[in-house]
Write a structure and sequence with these properties.
The complex is a heterodimer of chains A (about 120) and B (about 110). Chain A is about 0% helix and about 50% strand. Chain A is an all-beta fold and about 120 residues long. The chains are: A mainly beta (about 120), B mainly beta (about 110).
Chain lengths: ~120, ~110
């Protein structure tokens, strides 16, 4: 059973361009979580999605960031008009059931390292 | 969600046991205690979790205090590959994981 896959692993964008980060959850997992880790900082939750639905986007910046998890295909985190402050590692995780208040764990991908020039 | 307190850093010699403490005095009665670790340049990795009883798996042991206000992750024989940041995370009511600053474990050869 393949783990959580993320691509690309490294992404370089110039200021103002768009960045698209993809996450394929583990087989059988319909819950996806995105986290961001800024340089020298901890991981911060961004958004939680279930197939075709955004459940919690309380950690998403209000502008330029969006996420989706379509019925078919990977989850996408999209950053429009990137700025230098968006440079970070973006991790996605998946779970078979909703986590929180439970024994279920999240399985993380290797991350996408975004560099904005 | 419960707040956690962990030492910023710890050192261990290779092949010796390591005890990583975590205080979570505001944990609720139904929160599980999860431990994850993040190796350099990798995504977080699940280590172990428990509710009330001590737990063992192939990676580590988890000792939970009787009042559940603290727990200790035990690596029985640290190896160089165990060098990582270790996070203690009560499950809480929210779906997402709330990562604190964790403990940076350095393993000395």
């Amino acid at each position: 059973n393949a783990g959580v896959m993320q691509n690309p692993r490294h992404l370089v964008r110039r200021r103002g361009q768009e960045a698209r980060l993809r996450c394929s959850p583990m087989k059988g997992h319909s819950h996806v979580y995105w986290y961001r880790q800024l340089p020298e900082e901890g991981l911060k939750f961004m958004v939680y999605l279930q197939k075709e639905n955004i459940i919690d986007e309380s950690g998403m910046p209000k502008e330029r960031f969006s996420a989706e998890f379509p019925k078919e295909g990977p989850s996408i985190l999209r950053i429009q008009q990137v700025v230098r402050g968006d440079s970070a590692a973006y991790f996605c995780a998946s779970s078979p059931r909703p986590t929180g208040g439970s024994r279920d764990t999240q399985y993380f991908g290797p991350g996408t390292r975004l560099t904005v020039l | 969600d419960a707040k956690t307190t962990q030492p910023n850093s710890m050192e261990s010699n290779e092949e010796e046991p390591v005890h990583l403490p975590c205080n979570h005095s505001t944990i609720s009665g139904t929160d599980y205690i999860h431990w994850y670790r993040q190796l350099p340049s990798q995504g977080p990795e699940y280590v172990i979790h428990g509710l009330t009883s001590n737990v063992n798996n192939r990676m580590a042991s988890l000792a939970i205090a009787e009042d559940r206000k603290s727990s200790t992750l035990i690596l029985h024989r640290a190896t160089l590959r165990d060098a990582a940041v270790y996070y203690c995370i009560p499950s809480g009511s929210a779906r997402q994981l709330t990562f604190g600053s964790g403990t940076q474990l350095t393993v000395l050869p």
